[in-house]
Amino acid sequence: MIASNVIENIKFIAFDLDGTLLDSVPDLADAADKTMRHLGFDGVSVEQVTTWIGNGADILIGRALSRSFDIDPELDPALHRQARELFDHYYAAGGHQKSALYADVKTTLAHLYQAGVPMAIVTNKPSQFVPHLLEEHGINTYFVDVIGGDTFPLKKPDPFALHWLMEKHQLAASEMLMVGDSRNDILAAQAASCHSLGLTYGYNYGQPISDSEPDVVCDHFRQLLDVVKLGC
């Protein structure tokens, strides 16, 4: 799908990370699989984990333990905590070697940066992992703020982080664009009354991103430059 319209007067862009800038599911699945096996459960697949991510590590691990998108209400909290600790260990130990930026992400971010557009990361990923990932992939210098899933008490789809950015940078809602691959990104943008761009290639629980009705839907990250009228 080609970007269907241009969004005027954008002065700030917030980006999701996993499934938007970075294809990280192979490393996440590997850590989740090792966690389940360590605890004596059957392993989990990349395909399963792809439909479980997007709400942060606690919920991912709850879904892995439940073997379902809907977390078992009878899940033992102590087991959940143990599994989360193991997941963090395995995810860090793996060194994120299987993750990679999506096509044209680095050049597009560089273009926006050179054009003077301030940018931020707003992800539900635990904040402890985010700076290293950005640095490892050479995009850490592009962002004026990096917000993880535990930076604030509330995470996407709550608009708290977007409201915080608007207040910090003195932005009207109409001047901010949220770019993401998940309904959590679109719902957060809608709740904050800012613009949203949905990408079709990421992780959205197996559902089309268009179902969440973002302002613009794109198949390729580089199309962002057309949407905000910066050219290629």
Automatic annotation (TrEMBL):
Its cofactor is Mg(2+). GO terms for molecular function: metal ion binding; phosphoglycolate phosphatase activity. GO terms for cellular component: cytosol. Its EC number is 3.1.3.18. Pathway: Organic acid metabolism; glycolate biosynthesis; glycolate from 2-phosphoglycolate: step 1/1. It holds the Pfam family HAD_2. One of its GO terms (biological process) is DNA repair. Belongs to the HAD-like hydrolase superfamily. CbbY/CbbZ/Gph/YieH family. This is Phosphoglycolate phosphatase. The gene is gph_2.
